Amino acid sequence: LIDMEASYAEYEEWSEEPIPETTIKNYKKALQQLEKCKPYEEALLGAETPKLAEYQAYIDFEMKAGDPARIQLIYERALAENCLVPDLWARYNQYLDRQLKVKELVLSAHDRAVRNCPWTVGLWIRYLLAMERHRVEHSIISEIFEKALNAGFIQATDYVEIWQAYLDYLRRRVDFTQDSSKELEELRSAFARAVEYLKQEVEERFSESGDPSCTIMQNWARVEARLCNNMQKARELWDNIMTKGNAKYANMWLEYYNLERAHGDTQHCRKALHRAVQCTSDYPEHVCEVLLTLERIEGTLEDWDAAVQKTENRLARVNEQRAKAAEKEAALAKQEEERAEQRKQARAEKKASKKAKKTRLGDKRKADEDDEGEWGQEEELPSKRHRGEGDGVLPEEDMEVEAGLFGRSEKPEGPTIPKEKASTSRKDIPKVFHDSSKDKVTVFVSNLSYTMAEPEAKLRELFGSCGEVVEIRAVFNNKGTFRGYCYVQFREEEAARQALALDRTAVEGRPMFVSPCVDKNKNPDFKVFRYSTTLEKHKLFISGLPFSCTKEELEEVCKAHGNVKDIRLVTNRAGKPKGLAYVEYENEAQASQAVLKMDGLTVKDHVIKVMISNPPLRKLPGRPEAGRASLAQSLAPRQIYGARGKGRTQLSMMPRALQRQSNPVAKAENGMVQNSPATSSDPPAEPKKMSNADFAKMLLKK
């Protein structure tokens, strides 16, 4: 439609006869359509790749208009430039499934979707449903399912979902009015294969089956009980489920009880509840109540007495265990308080001993000065400051007296005098203790430069944009030197929340840390670290960057593969770059595309590595239990990404025996390999001493 005015003018000039009324009417209608579409087309022309937001706005406009042909065309245009965006494929396929419903068109779109985004399990599930909806042959659907299993999903739960979708399809093929059929046997064999696949293939790769609640086995048991009237097989399946660590959960026992209640008999219901009372550890009271309700309605007096006795004994043991756990927890808390008190007392004693030592050194120096204060020795002022000897410069009034003795009226000049005077004036400032009742309107600022001059004025100017600053309490040591942290108190709580946004702001070349003012003794679980420590599929971790790489330069490289929401360059406490960065994209698809294109890229003669962000577990200081748990988890194999993730193969070609950590060996200076001290019991041999003659022989030897 663009530039059709010129075409209409040429047509009008070429035509010898008057233009038909219908043509004029259609031309005006096309002009109106062009005016509606023109803003969206201009937005696409002016936008940068991948133009997802502009295409989405255009798609929403066409969806409201409701023209199927135009909707299909705008989707195809968007996918031509964004073929690796799973969400776009999902919306397009959903429209085709619900609106057009043309078999060839629908199946073709689904096939292209899984070919471009094979790592997205939702697209495979939609593909299987579409083929079943359009009555595709069973052999073709099974073939597509096998391709899905080999697609390389990045989560264990994805395999559970694709298996569940395929089992649902097989279940819908079975005619349960017949006692036995080929389809039923195929369904049972598929259930058995699914359980075995999750146990071996998935668990070996991800260190978890992805199905801890055994949902596939539960569905299998329901099919056997409700549709096949085979309670014996259902009971066998539930026995297997309980042996996989689910016997301690009340909801699992109640699920089995409800199935037995609906399709079994009272005897097996009673047996299941008795086992549940014995094994349940999370909600034993609820299970006991269900057992008593069953016996109240259907049981005999003997059954009631047995149930009451069993539940009372079980609840008594549970209460005893809970009391012991509470006592143990209280004892641990008391020990922690005692250790904290001991540490506090040790710090106080250490501080007192340092203060006493400093006082003794000061008295000794004063006595030495009194003994040596004679004529001819006073014109040499101390030029070097020694640790623990105070300021090392005479007070101002003493300097005037000394100058008068020698006939000089001016004060001695020196670059250290203003600094020492400032230090002396700092000592005169009384200590200001922190008021914990004002923590909600206070932020804690740290990692500031020790050499910062007038930190109160500097920080008041910096935090003034957040709200009214009531007080800034900078912390100094005994010598008056700024310790690099302070407390900033605001008038209102909202201002303190806005101040947290200044975290990591560069101040005098260092990143300033701004965190809530929280007493960690009262809130030991409080975490200052504000970044996620779990798998984030839309965020990349980049290593190997040159230290000179800036945020703008990295954004220029990354934005070619998607919309970059945020970039964080990792620095040390001094603000120096570490060659690492985190790049956050709008969605998982853009991040996956960036991994494929950027991994191994050269940036300023540095080859960078790009992978999906999945940080290792952080160790919590001061918590040995957490440290041991994190160590055990860190020794477990990390998740290995496929071709759409880290860009590496998902299979380890090294035998497992070689992957075990071998004994460390140390290499001696003469090139021989010897056992390290950690593994060898023999003391290390001392090197032979060489004489001058030995060195001469070495030099003359050819």
UniProtKB/TrEMBL annotation:
One Gene Ontology term from the biological process aspect of the record: mRNA splicing, via spliceosome
PROSITE patterns found in the cross-reference section: RRM (PS50102)
Top-level taxon of origin: Eukaryota
Composition bias, Acidic residues: 369-380
UniProt entry tagged with the keyword Nucleus: yes
Subcellular localization(s) per the UniProt record: Nucleus
Key word Manganese present: no
Polar residues bias locations: 672-682
Transmembrane portions of the chain: none
Domain (RRM): residue spans on this chain: 441-519, 538-615
Region (Disordered): 326-427, 655-702
UniProt keyword terms in alphabetical order: mRNA processing, mRNA splicing, Nucleus, Repeat, RNA-binding
GO molecular function terms listed in the Swiss-Prot or TrEMBL record: RNA binding
Basic and acidic residues: compositionally biased ranges: 326-351, 408-427
Signal sequence annotation: none
Entry-linked PANTHER family: RIBONUCLEIC ACID BINDING PROTEIN S1, SQUAMOUS CELL CARCINOMA ANTIGEN RECOGNIZED BY T-CELLS 3
Record protein name field: SART3 protein
Gene of this entry: Sart3
